[in-house]
Amino acid sequence: MKRKSRSRYKGLLIFLVFILAVVFAVNSIGYILKYMYPIKYSQYVERYSDEYGLDRNLVYSIIKAESGFNPNAVSVRNAKGLMQIMDSTGEWAAEKMNIENFESGMLLEPETNIRIGCWYIARLLNQYDSNVELALTAYNAGSGNVSKWLKNTDISSNGKTLDRIPFEETENYVKKIKRYNYVYKKLYDGQK
């Protein structure tokens, strides 16, 4: 009889430990995902995504893909800051946006970088009739390439969307942003 009681007690104890481990794991997943998909610089992302009519999750996804939230990031092509803006794009955008006394070093300032990046992605979305995939493709490969590809019937059968993205790096970039955006929406929609 004592053995049966001990066996039941051990079984119950193992079951309780298992349940606690499952509860801990489920709760930890949310924390781990939020650590991996942060919403840093939210005051700027919220301000400028709202100003330019952008989905905040998309902006966070671009920042995560472009710089991993490192405001001092500089690519091998000399793109700078959180949203990896090229000097020439920054100068052109600053002129269009009436940012006075702009210098390329300002692209390393989080607010300036996010402001210009949001303005630019909004401009691309407008240029491509709110087609996020085309805007992201242009953000990475340049709008000149996208315009050329849309005219090429081997790449675009309808002249409005791309059947394929000729640059593997850009194709992977667009897929990455879409994945990140999906996770950001799942983690944060309804919490803002």
TrEMBL record:
Record-linked InterPro entries: Lysozyme-like_dom_sf, Transglyc_AS, Transglycosylase_SLT_dom_1
Single Gene Ontology BP annotation: peptidoglycan metabolic process
GO cellular-component term (any): membrane
Key word Transmembrane helix present: yes
Span of the signal peptide: none
One matching Pfam family: SLT
Molecular function GO terms recorded: peptidoglycan lytic transglycosylase activity
Annotated keywords: Membrane, Transmembrane, Transmembrane helix
Keyword Plastid: no
Record field: transmembrane: 12-33
Ranges of residues in domain Transglycosylase SLT: 44-154
Gene3D superfamilies named in the record: 1.10.530.10
Assigned protein family: Belongs to the transglycosylase Slt family.
Protein's recorded name: Soluble lytic murein transglycosylase
